[in-house]
Amino acid sequence: IGELFIVGFQGTTIEPGSQIEIDLAQRNLGGVVLFDRCLTNPILPGNIESPDQLKILTSAINNLAATPPFISVDQEGGLVQRLGQRNGFLGSASAAEMGHSPKGIAFTELQAEATAKMLGQAGINTNFAPVVDLDINAENPIIGKLGRSFSDKPDIVIRHAESWIRCHREHSVISCLKHFPGHGSSTSDSHLGFVDISATWDEHELMPYQELISKGLVDMIMTGHLFNRLLDPVFPATLSATTIHDLLRQKLGFDGLVLTDDMQMKAITSRYGFQEALCQSFAAGIDIIVIGNNLEYDPLIFQKAVRAVCQGVRQGMVAESRLYDALQRVRTLKQFFIGKSNG
User: Fold this and answer.
1) What would the pLDDT profile of 230-275 be if each residue is shown by its tens digit?
2) How many domains does the chain have?
3) Do the beta carbons of residue 24 and residue 66 sit within 8 Å?
4) Hey, which bits of 8-124 come out as E strands?
């Protein structure tokens, strides 16, 4: 079950005997997510200090891991980038700057190419980007106001996302569409609490997913912790079988890997217990659970998560066959990308 998790940790190096070393070497942790700052203790630098340090860290992670790990970051550009000028990397433009650039798609290509190349050189194989949310609500505190969307027009979002994905693939870096089924219209932030998009969400927000899936350009999709009673009167997208299985898999025809947004966000933790959230996500069709371990920090979080899911299987909260199904998707994607870049 360890392979079905991507988890964050603290530190710019991996100390012998540390929890993260044990998780990677002995517990088959599927991947890590790296941050440039530590939110629970701002004095600590997070995981990323400089290009040289990062290269040493990612190579240590690769060498320790029992199976090739996802080594992931959020490198969208603009206000959301973990490798930036302040830690010695090239900064890149925001999605909004790319989408509105007078140079058009050529500018996005330039930015995406530089980003993917930089990530590849740093030993990072997975980028939680591009954001394909439509910029429907300019006052949206977590998308619009932060310049994280290419445009409010689906065709522009599709064009720029396509360029982004192709550049990443050329450098064997996995990209990830987010936040399904669309965070662009929301009026609040899922980091801070429950987000209900029922009154603002529009079916047009599915167009980037539909188009990019049909072109075979989607490596993975991240769900948003977004409640939409039109899609599911009970659960937010991350925990919703009607959203993940019926809409994304059956209707939109996506058979690739689906992963969660950070499960420590208040949209989840304020309403669901730890075990309930994990098991319900897997049961709904999620393949990988992401635990940033940064909004709150617990070195034993991965062990606790695996234990909770194993117990959930025994209690009938999630079928073992569903976890095998998830594991197949994880291994297929890793083989395609990580096998290639390591080999």
Assistant:
1) 999 999 999 999 999 999 999 999 999 999 999 999 989 999 999 9
2) 1
3) yes
4) 31-33, 70-73, 75-77, 80-81
Rounded to the nearest 10 degrees, how much is the dihedral formed by the CA atoms of 151, 153, 154, 159? -60
**Residue in the block written with tokens 């940033």:** 292
Q: Is the pTM of this model over 0.70?
A: yes
Helices 320-342 + 301-314 axis angle, to 10: 140
For residue 114, give both structure tokens.
């530089």
Residue range 33-83, pLDDT digits in tens: 999 998 888 888 799 999 999 999 999 999 999 899 999 999 999 999 999
Task: For residue 179, say if its preceding peptide bond is cis, omega within 30 degrees of 0.
Answer: yes
The enclosing domain of 20 has a CATH number of 3.20.20.300
- Bin 29: left if φ > 0, else alpha if -120 < ψ < 50, else beta: beta
The mean predicted confidence, pLDDT, of the chain is 95
Domain of 73, in residue numbers: 2-342
**Inter-CA distances, 85 with 81, 89, 130, Å:** 10, 5, 20
Task: Say which residue the tokens 């990580």 belong to.
Answer: 338
